[in-house]
Structures are given as C-alpha cells and as structure tokens.
Design brief:
The protein is built from three helices and two strands; from the N terminus they run ββααα. With 128 residues, it is mostly helical. It has a two-stranded antiparallel ribbon with strand order 1-2. The chain is elongated and about 65 Å long.
Length: 128
C-alpha cells in the first residue's frame, strides 16, 4: 500500500516528507468561513489542514465511486445472465454451449448500458 505522505530520498538514503509548496484559495462569506472554521476546530485541526484533508479524501472518493459503478455493472451482468438462462433451465430445457456463448457475449456488450439505464430510471423515480 502506498504511503499517504509522499517521501523524497535524501543523499544519505533517509526519507523525508516532500514539502507542501502548492497553495489553493477560495472565497467564502463571513458566515461560511465561521462555519468551516468551527467545523475544523471541532475536529482538533486548523481550517487549512481540514480543507486539505477533505479535498484529498474526495480524490479517494472518486476512485471509490468508479469501483462501486464497476461492481454495480457486474451485478447487472449477473442479473441479465440469470434472467436469460434461469427460466429455460427451470422448464427442463438444455442450453447448448453455442447458445450460452452467445448469451455471454450479449451480456458483456449490454451490461454497462443496462446499468446506466437502471441508474437513470432510479434517479427519475427519486425526483418524482
């Protein structure tokens, strides 16, 4: 696992944290600033360190969201495969290997679109 703090090797082989030399700024109203400052202090940290932690954590959240979408897409694929195969199997029908290969290809090509469609439908239902 990669260390959350980037290190720079020194001439004697020791490691030291990289200097933080980039600055971001943002403008807030007095009330927004007071609320943010109060939140940071309640966490026992400065506003600057709290903001830095939140921004860096949001980067990890983006990766997490991508992984969640990938997992959801795979679950949709499993659902599509089950829906396509379970009924014939329960009737006692056999599925030929070439039919199964076609089904696998169909699921692979349609699962992402179907997952997006399901999420869009869910989003529309929440808005109603």
């Amino acid at each position: 696992m990669e260390s959350p703090i980037p290190f720079k090797p020194t001439t004697n082989g020791a490691k030291r944290p990289l200097a933080r030399n980039r600055i971001l700024s943002a403008r807030f109203t007095e009330s927004e600033y007071a609320a943010l400052e109060s939140f940071a202090w309640s966490k026992g940290t400065t506003l600057a360190d709290c903001a830095r932690d939140v921004l860096l954590h949001s980067l990890e959240g983006a990766t997490q969201a991508q992984m969640e979408m990938h997992i959801f897409t795979e679950l949709v694929g499993i659902q599509l495969l089950l829906m396509s195969t379970l009924e014939p199997l329960l009737r006692g029908d056999k599925i030929a290997p070439e039919q199964l290969a076609i089904l696998f290809r169909q699921v692979q090509t349609t699962k992402a679109a179907k997952a997006q469609e399901l999420l869009a439908k869910r989003s529309q239902n929440k808005e109603k």
